[in-house]
Amino acid sequence: MISLKGLSAFPITPSNRDGRVDVGALRALLEPLLAAKVDSVGLLGSTGSYPYFSREERRRAVEAATALASGRMPILVGIGALRTDDAVRLAQDAREAGATAGLLAAVSYTPLTDDEVFEHFQTVARESGLPICIYDNPGTTHFRFTPALIGRLSRVEGIVAVKSPALDASTIADHLKELRAAVPDGVALGYSADWNCTESLLAGGDTWYSVVAGVLPRICVEIVRAATSGDAARARQLDARLLPIWDLFKAYSGLRVVYAIANLRGICAAEPPRPILPLPADAQRRVKETLAAMDVS
After folding, report:
1. Which residues is 165 bridged to in the sheet?
2. pLDDT digits (tens, 9 = 90+) for 185-210
3. What share of residues in the chain are helix, strand, coil (percent, to 5)?
């Protein structure tokens, strides 16, 4: 039985300007996640810039991660692609390389209908044999999953989890209630958008799919353990220590900020894939000053 509950930490994917994954730097990012005992690693998610890498480089990243993890924790791998046949091949590659599950978004250029998304997911699950987590990320795909579509997909063999955006803390409980009513027991329901995820856990969400845990895993593990043990006050107290990070994420985007943090903390030396640029000097200074003033690890 595959479990994607708890804390899923999403690291960046360091690479050179030609799109070649820096496997050594990736290992340096993953080792602290293993040491902190996160519940899973979300490799090649949006933070991992999956659309910017070739099939070959995506496979190299998965092979490096699964070799390092050596079965100690689940590896969830982004397998999104515009074409269904490409997503199938990426999912097959991930399965063959030892991934636990695939994170599949409804990547689109031409806007997709619900029926087209259903067929896409059903085909990838059937032809790859890789368990699938539905990735609802309308900010990048411009497609939003309704509870009805998630309920329909959750009955497809091989679809085991859902990753939804926690865009508004005040709506999480109602959204979660709708999803719980739509999906069978055993389908893990989790959230991203880090600044609202403590509340999503306290509302009963199964998983925090976390950007910041890719560079600051220990405090995120503490938050999840507090929330899942019912200690809401402790979870919120820890979350409050991350408020300066949430402000940076909202100002500059989580992706750019975690690249800056990884470099400033000496975890690795990396820049985001072009055309995304590193933060300008004044923003880098703000990130550095924020980290210096915080008591996090």
Report:
1. 192
2. 999 999 999 999 999 999 999 999 99
3. 50, 15, 35
